[in-house]
Design a protein that fits this description.
heterodimer; A: mainly alpha; 9 helices; 77% helix; flat; B: alpha/beta; 10 strands; 39% helix
Amino acid sequence: MNLDPSFIWTAGLSLLQALPETLWITFVSVAAGLVIGTAVALCRMYHIPVLSQLSAGYVAFVRGTPMLMHLLLIYFGLPVLIDGISSAMGWSFTSASIPLIGFVWIAFSITAGAYMSEVVRAGIQAVDKGQVEAAQSIGMTTIQTLRRIILPQALSVSLPNLSNSVIGMLHGSTLAYTISVVEINARAQIVAADNWKYFEAYIAAAILFWVLTILIEWISGWLEYRLNAYQRGGAL
Amino acid sequence: MIQLSGLSKTFGTQQVLKEIDLTVDKGEVVVILGPSGSGKTTMLRCINYLERPDAGEVRIGHLAVQGKHPSRRDIHQLRQRTAMVFQQYNLFKHRTALENVMEGLTVVQRIPRSEAREISARMLEKVGLGSKLDHYPGQLSGGQQQRVGIARALALNPEVILFDEPTSALDPELVGEVLEVIRRIAREGITMIVVTHEMGFARDVANRVVFMDGGIIVEEGQPEEIFQRPREERTRQFLQRIMPEPNYSI
């Protein structure tokens, strides 16, 4: 077998064109996932009727099925639903006008939401009960307690796990190639096939993902240091 | 004036409060004594509904809160009129000493930040922590944390401050500084209900001592009455166990 090391570099440069797609997919799914995850965790922890059962079902289904399945179900199912509603209501909107990456965003947000709800739940449960009692004793409402006392502390506790979720979503974003969204992985396939140099192209993709992962770890390490400043003893 | 009437609470099959009646006048310092499991902490926590009584009424001034399921608004009102100092301090860990004291002022009482900052700094000064405003709880000793806890309660200007064994979690050498602060604010005429095991403190700060056992108030009275001439056998036994009398006289 002939390895062409210089082509790794060439392929790498070409992969950078697809970097924005990968980053967008990761960013949107993580951001939406965090919002969904927090909402779901709260519904379950406060035992809100109906919503808590729905949330439990959602988490069980999503965590019980592969991420690729979520993408395919959304990609094939959502147009049927949207076009059905649209024609019943007499709208001119059709699912064809949704960009492909939109399906990826929706599907992976659903995936991330389920996983992150467990991370957020663990974080909230790690907050000392005394913190809540202190907040209540000074007359704070449940919402104020949640927003000002519980969530900030839960977030800083969950940071290592959240960064794991981000890395998971970054690597999972490669599945978007199955519905023809050209992110890094799909781009690597294209470059490889054009030049008949598969191994080199995938080495380049692997290195790029590794670098991105290291960056995420750095950022999360820095955030952890900042957010947990209060937990370090000693002088300021 | 604070009035508890018919306060009852059961955990599982254990009835920890049996129709407690207690009245505390404005400016009074009431110390609750009793063996562990006697219900004193539960009673204190019922006053601000951190623990929900199964039956009975908590009345503070004109506000009367009743039974197990009062309205959210009533509970909220009750908590705005009371403040609590916890055994484990329970300072907000992610907030500095100053922010801990300010939190209730800005968020609950909606006092402008600059004014809240001024009040909070003054309160921390008062408990001897004027130089620690920007320290996080993790950077303070237990005694200092508890003094921040007291400043946090004081700043809210509540109708009563509830102290739940405020020195029980402290190293022995730090107990003094905290008791000294409580003693000082007691003299200012702030209404206080204190659950404690510090007999010396009870003796010289309390206007009234309440002795509880088995979920009831066994007896109450002036400190010298309770400590020197307890009427009830149970009180006598408890006091003897806690402070054994010397078998000699000077």
